[in-house]
Description:
Chain A is an all-alpha fold and 149 residues long. Chain A has 1 helix and no strands. In chain C, the strands form 3 sheets. Chain C has a 4-stranded antiparallel β-sheet with strand order 5-6-7-8, with no helix packed on it. In chain C, α1 packs across α9, α4 (171-192) packs across α5 (200-218) and α6 packs parallel to α9. The longest helix of chain C is centred in the last third of the chain and has 47 residues, at 266-312.
Amino acid sequence: xxxxxxxxxxxxxxxxxxxxxxxxxxxxxxxxxxxxxxxxxxxxxxxxxxxxxxxxxxxxxxxxxxxxxxxxxxxxxxxxxxxxxxxxxxxxxxxxxxxxxxxxxxxxxxxxxxxxxxxxxxxxxxxxxxxxxxxxxxxxxxxxxxxxx
Amino acid sequence: xxxxxxxxxxxxxxxxxxxxxxxxxxxxxxxxxxxxxxxxxxxxxxxxxxxxxxxxxxxxxxxxxxxxxxxx
Amino acid sequence: xxxxxxxxxxxxxxxxxxxxxxxxxxxxxxxxxxxxxxxxxxxxxxxxxxxxxxxxxxxxxxxxxxxxxxxxxxxxxxxxxxxxxxxxxxxxxxxxxxxxxxxxxxxxxxxxxxxxxxxxxxxxxxxxxxxxxxxxxxxxxxxxxxxxxxxxxxxxxxxxxxxxxxxxxxxxxxxxxxxxxxxxxxxxxxxxxxxxxxxxxxxxxxxxxxxxxxxxxxxxxxxxxxxxxxxxxxxxxxxxxxxxxxxxxxxxxxxxxxxxxxxxxxxxxxxxxxxxxxxxxxxxxxxxxxxxxxxxxxxxxxxxxxxxxxxxxxxxxxxxxxxxxxxxxxxxxxxxxxxxxxxxxxxxxxxxxxxxxxxxxxxxx
Lengths: 149, 72, 365
């Protein structure tokens, strides 16, 4: 047979084939059950853990960024509010001042008018009095004049 | 006589494999020159390809060896 | 602690190189002895092919140094029943095969290196039933590598359990974890697809078993030195297991692609079917030959370079041969990993092709 004439180097030895088969199946069984399974499981668990940690970190980072954004937004809002409030306050102040001014003006005018009225009144009274006195004087003088004459 | 023919056969296989591995090396060097950042990937691919070519040459050697034994 | 594994690896590699050099001296010593015996026994000259083949092939004993070797048990099953004896009975003190008389007479065949049953007249009986399942050098290496791989990975599994998943890997664990992840992320995931988890134990076992045996084969002295992963029986069993796994897990779509390739005209379908069917068998055969040829070629290359010293019969040749051998040795370290990787990757690829779902075919159109 062709196969049996082969050189011993390339002719598989039956004894070694059997030993090899037995050995390889033992290796497969022992390692598969007691080595590869725990090793792969451990590596897998660790990878999952690392992945989890990374996603967790990313999440935390995102949260931090979110928080920072929120803070900033709050700050800007507060700033805006403050500006609005300041503006309002200024407006109110201006308004009050203006109102006061207006009121003062009106009061002043009123006082002036009153004063003028009073002055006029006094003036009129004075004039009347003078007129009266002049009248009286004229009468007195005329009386005196007539009495003498 | 058979031995010499077998030796010639193995030699021819070596010539073929030499050309093949040379081509692989050339391709890899050019690739690395063009893209030095891919050097590691290229190197491992080159080694694998070279091992395949070498294996073909060794197939031929085994066949030559068989021919030597069967022809003698 | 992390570099401890790498450090020990470096030490091992260095020791390997040192022993390669001392191996030269040893072999030289042997050469002298051989020259002595040449004078007395009339033996033939130094035969490079025989020397190399002796190292590459399997043997019944495990050579340590000089004339010392570990005798391994020979186990034979013949029609007269089971027979167990030590391999030291097979050779005399001059390393020549002798007849061992058990239930039959056994002798080593000089050409094949295997045990044969002898007839009463001393000629070899080729028709007698002889099933040889001795603990040869390769089988001993196989058992050793089984022990090693189990010890290494069981201890790592224990480290994971002890240390928990929260702390970083340490020592051997930190050295091998990237390789395990490499097998998973670069071999299994891209080639098999989402259903890769089912095949991970198989792929990891294949990868580390081949790699460890390639590395053991590179150690030139006692616990290594056997050319196990360059033995065709070793690669054949692995390829057979791959063949079974691929074809058992193959789905309907895969078989349809083989026997009735969709999307081509029917004469083409008839033409493609036998080719695809052949491919089913050629794939594992190519796996078998690739690993066998690569590892054996590496061993032969290193040995041939060392043998140059004896071919030229000059110590000066070592100045050229040894650096070359060291260079090839370094390449072989790479090849040891590369071949384990390629075997595993192709296995994953074949599995991936076999379990591929229908939708991929749609993408082809």
